[in-house]
Amino acid sequence: MFENIKKQSCYGNFLNGQWIYSDKCLKIYNPTSKELMGYISQMQPEDVDKAVESCKNAQKTWGNMPTNERAKILHKAANLLLNNQDYIADILMQEIAKDKKSCLSEISRTADFIKFTADEGERTIGEALNADNFPGVKTDKLAFVIREPLGVVLAISPFNYPINLSVSKIAPALIAGNSVVLKPPTQGAISAMHMVEIFNQAGLPAGVLNTITGKSSEIGDYLVTHPGIDFINFTGSTKVGKHIASVSKMVPLIMELGGKDAAIVLDDANLEDAANDIVSGAFSYSGQRCTAIKRVIAINSIADKLIDLILPKVKELKVGNPKDSTITPLINDKAKDYVLELMNDAVEKGAQCLIGGNHQDNLVYPTIYDMVTEEMRIAWEEPFGPVLPIIRVSTIDEAIALANKSEYGLQSSVFTMNINNAFYVAKRLEVGTVHINNKTERGPDHFPFSGIKNSGMGTQGIRYSIEAMTRRKNIVLEYN
Asked: Among positive and negative, which fits the CA dihedral 132, 137, 143, 149?
């Protein structure tokens, strides 16, 4: 099924219904074995022009196709994805060093996302308004408010979920009648190309979904400033997101950026449950998730007991090969070096390492620091690795103030058995989502998902993404 997506060992780009290949290629290595997996095509600005022009032309026909016909193609794509789940999961595991169970989960979740999006698109309808609701207006006017696609959507996805976070942009755009240019992550592009071929096999018309791979330093700015792009949906670092926002000018954006998600544990919490959620939330996929718990803010009176419950669970985590481990190698040496910087800074400034603190190559062992203070970088910076700082506070208000002091505002958790305390904290936290007695996490995918401050802009979630990638048109009928 996937024989056309590569020529020899170089994976192509999907353009106007065909797989094309570049003479220049980028090497993709397995993060675990460091062996060469293959090559991806290194596209140039002229290829960007072709991809955008192809999308522009195809969108006109695609946007006029009945929504139920578009939905049928999406449902077929979801079923094909499930039929090839094991094969693609193996590639995903090798390419981004994610454990096999999580790879399978990402693919099945993505299939569910596509199906729900197709159904939601068929439920997305306009509205009719009577004019005489407004004072002084007669009853001889009606407004028909309809939704139209924006045009060409640029989807830029990250390495940690190259299939799910590509499809979370592609599927809502497609069901709304847009065409899509996908810029997948360099590390993750091989997996993403298999997903694109799934849409091709499902019958997506030529030009509706095109891809661009290559060095961001060569094509990044050209792509995000291209006059043919009508919407940008980006997931990635805050630094890159801010740059895109500064150069893209009037193009509407959805951005999911960094986070420093806090788990606030109050003195009346169920500590056993909190410990389970904290370990799962902090260490799954080695903490390489924007919604991972990245700091614990604990009331001092229960901090020791909480730690005593957390440490045995961390010791039980399997470390090593993605085939059977939770803690797997970080995506590359650059990521590993940054995590080690934060760890060394914490130790130099007096943090107590309770477990871990060591690494083998780019495999960083699960690490917990106690007695973390505000002077330490690990209290504020996002490690994107299996490192968890514990910060002790005396009061609820101190915990809230410390959480809000972060430059990020993606998610937080609060653990308490007192509903009044739960909502007291939740209403005061400056984040897009607060979880009560649960770890921070992205789903379910039809819930609204957004960040404030340096964690992003706009709201995702299936219905919200569809709405963001459509515009309202008002048609006013005056009658006598």
From this structure: negative
**Rounded to whole angstroms, what are the CA distances from 42 to 12, 236, 285, 414?**
9, 20, 28, 45
Residues with Cβ within 8 Å of 394's Cβ and at least 6 positions away in sequence, in order, are: 299, 300
Distance of alpha carbon 331 from alpha carbon 373, whole angstroms: 28
> What is the 8-class DSSP label of residue 405?
T
Strand runs (DSSP E) across 8-140, as ranges? 10-11, 13-15, 18-20, 25-29, 36-41, 127-130
In CATH terms, the fold of domain 3-257+456-475 is: Aldehyde Dehydrogenase; Chain A, domain 1 (3.40.605)
Cα gap 304→294, rounded to integer Å: 19
pLDDT tens-digit profile of 212-231?
999 988 999 999 999 999 99
Q: Please provide the CATH number assigned to the domain covering 262-452.
A: 3.40.309.10
Q: Which among 106, 197, 256, 382 is annotated as catalytic?
A: 256
Is pTM beyond 0.85 here? yes
Our answer to whether residue 53 is catalytic in this structure is no
CB 42 within 8 A of CB 22: yes
Domain boundaries, the chain: 3-257+456-475, 262-452
- Phi, psi dihedrals of residue 477, rounded to the nearest 5°: -105, 125
CA–CA dist 449, 470 (Å, integer): 18
Is 127 marked active-site? no
CA distances to 74, 182, 200, 390 from 203, rounded to whole Å, are 9, 18, 5, 51
Identify the pLDDT of residue 19: 97
pLDDT tens per residue across span 258-281: 999 999 999 999 999 999 999 999
Active-site choice (25, 55, 103, 290): 290
